Every structure is written in C-alpha cells, then in structure tokens.
C-alpha cells in the first residue's frame, strides 16, 4: 500500500506483494485496448520485474447509477457540489497507532496485471474505432482495417524498431515500457525470423486470433459457477453458450475488427492447434434460441386455442354451447257459437 499524489490530490493505492512500496512508482497512460471512444485512457506502471500493472479504482459511499434516484429519495448518500460523495478514508496501523493517515476522499485504487499483448492488438487495429460496445454487433469493415494495418507492417521489425513505431504512431507513453516487456508481448502474436543473430517480428491477424482463441478456451475451462447458464438445455448447447459468453467477455479488451475475426474462427479454416469451434458455437446457440422461441410461441397459440374451444383439464366438464329452440304453437279449429257440445243444455226453453 502506498500514498501517491497526482495533481495535488492524495491517492491510496494498494500494491501487489511483488511491488516495493518504498520505491517511487511512476504511472503513465495508454489508449484503451478496445479503441472504444467512450472509454478513458488506462493507467499503467511497469514493475522492476518487467510485469505491467493497471491501476483501477473503487469508490465507497456512492451507489450505482441505476439506483441514483432511489438513493437520493432515501437520503442514503451525501454529495458535495462536484458530485463527489462526502466520505473520508482512515488508514490505521495496528502495530503503530501513531502511524496513520486521513484522506479526504473515499476512492480506493488497486492494481491488476495488464497483458501488453492487448495494447499491441489495439495498436495493430488502431483504425478500427467504435463508439461503444453496441457497435460490435454491426457489420464490420474488418477487411479494410486489416489491409490498412498490413501496409504498416509489411516489414519485419526488431523489438527496438517496434518500440519506436509504437511511440511515434500510437502513443508517446510507450517509451515507459521496457524492451523486455514489449518483446514478451510481440512473441505471442508475431511471425518471427532470425537474421544475423537478431530476431525480427511482424504482428499478423491470424496469430492475434489464435492468441484470443486461447484466452476464450481458458475462460471456458474455468467458467465461474456463479455465472448464470442456460437451464433445461442440452449439454452441447450449454457448452456453446459458455464459448459465446467467454468470447463476449473480451469485448472490453479488443477492437471491433479483432472481435469480428474471433467470432468467425473455425479450426477447419486454420492450421491452429485449437479445436474450439467459436463460429459454430454462435450459430448453434442462435439456432437453438430461435427454435426454442418458436416452440414457446406455438405453445402459447395452443393454449389460447384450448381456452377458446373450452377444453377443460383434470377431468373437468366440457362446456356445451346452448341452442335456443323455437316453439311452434298448433292452431286448434274454432267452434261456431251455439254449435258446441254443451250448448243444448243451456238452450232457452
């Protein structure tokens, strides 16, 4: 744990065990790996062991956006004029109570490992820019983006040449990343050749897709049990669902063009050793959901039909439509006055 000052503001940063808090840590920013315009820059720092870490934040005393109105009505949180929660952070050393600190902010910063490969993928597809994640379901101009990037990467480059290319054409802060860290990323998504004892690299879309397929496979094999899955679905459909969800989890880390290439991956169309059918998983899950939805519509129609004709259930009586019968009255012949059977009895004398 360390206290850092940024622009005059103190920040509490929880560091990994591998980092030495007694040494000065300089952070820098790079563009978001996904090239999504609505996302902020990512804050990074490289440790002495060559590992790259991303600095993220969590703020106490502030509810989620969807419950803002409810929290406001319940007077649950209190905010300053700049919309920051009125909270403070107390840092206490149990071993030495005199060694403590009070910060006038409720924001806590922590660090997670950052794979430099994702930043390299963002650079390779830097012309593939999206406004937000919703654009990923729209038709892609992947072919044009790949052509544009291939023109920039027609030549094999050394690690140092790639370092200069990234600094000059992507972001100046690439100069804060060591050659050792950069080389560890290039080896995972590049073709290599060796000449005069030096290794040259060239990033290719095929190797990028292969690397991402490996990530999807790892997520699928370690799928969290708390994550909701399809109920009452066949085992093969459940597996397709896991592959689709694992693929979509990478949306926040890769550009749109890389995502479109990934969902088209099929081991039959590449020399990759992976047998993960990503394209087939998307197709099978979509067909299953469409068929299941059609079945639900058919069931609903059958139920409505049953209700309309009055079909009872569980031994209930069957309603019968009542028919109104018309009663026909027969006409009896009228007897003339004085001609009846008893008229003679009452006859005048």
TrEMBL record:
Q: Which InterPro entries match?
A: RNase_H2_suB (IPR040456), RNase_H2_suB_wHTH (IPR019024), Rnh202_N (IPR041195)
Whether Transferase counts among this entry's keywords is no
Q: Coiled-coil region(s) at which residues?
A: none
Q: Which domain of life is it from?
A: Eukaryota
Return the protein name: Ribonuclease H2 subunit B
Q: Where is the Ribonuclease H2 subunit B wHTH domain?
A: 147-262
Subcellular location field: Nucleus
């Amino acid at each position: 744990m360390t206290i850092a000052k940024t622009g005059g503001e103190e920040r509490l940063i929880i560091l990994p065990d591998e980092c030495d808090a007694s040494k000065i840590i300089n952070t820098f920013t790079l563009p978001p790996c996904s090239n999504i315009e609505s996302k902020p820059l990512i804050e990074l720092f490289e440790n002495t062991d060559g590992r790259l870490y991303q600095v993220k934040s969590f703020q106490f005393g502030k509810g989620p956006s969807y419950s803002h109105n409810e929290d406001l009505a319940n007077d649950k949180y209190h905010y300053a004029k700049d919309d920051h929660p009125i909270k403070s952070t107390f840092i206490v050393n149990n071993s030495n109570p005199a060694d403590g600190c009070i910060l006038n902010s409720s924001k806590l910063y922590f660090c997670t490992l950052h794979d430099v490969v994702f930043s390299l993928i963002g650079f390779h597809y830097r012309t593939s820019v999206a406004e937000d994640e919703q654009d990923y379901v729209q038709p892609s101009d992947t072919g044009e983006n790949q052509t544009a990037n291939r023109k920039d990467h027609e030549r094999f480059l050394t690690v140092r040449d790639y370092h200069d290319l990234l600094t000059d054409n992507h972001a100046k802060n690439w100069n804060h990343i060591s050659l050792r860290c950069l080389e560890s990323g290039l080896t995972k998504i590049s073709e290599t050749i060796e000449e005069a004892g030096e290794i040259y690299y060239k990033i290719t879309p095929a190797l990028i897709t292969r690397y991402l397929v490996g990530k999807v496979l790892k997520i699928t094999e370690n799928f969290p049990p708390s994550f909701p899955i399809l109920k009452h679905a066949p085992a093969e459909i459940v597996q397709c669902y896991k592959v689709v969800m694992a693929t979509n989890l990478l949306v926040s880390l890769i550009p749109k063009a890389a995502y479109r290439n990934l969902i088209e991956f099929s081991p039959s169309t590449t020399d990759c050793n992976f047998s993960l059918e990503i394209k087939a998983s998307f197709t099978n899950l979509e067909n299953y959901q469409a068929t299941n939805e059609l079945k639900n519509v058919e069931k609903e129609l059958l139920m409505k039909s049953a209700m309309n004709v009055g079909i009872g259930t569980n031994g209930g009586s069957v309603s019968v439509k009542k028919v109104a019968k018309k009663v026909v009255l027969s006409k009896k012949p009228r007897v003339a006055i004085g001609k009846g059977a008893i008229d003679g009895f009452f006859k005048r004398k």
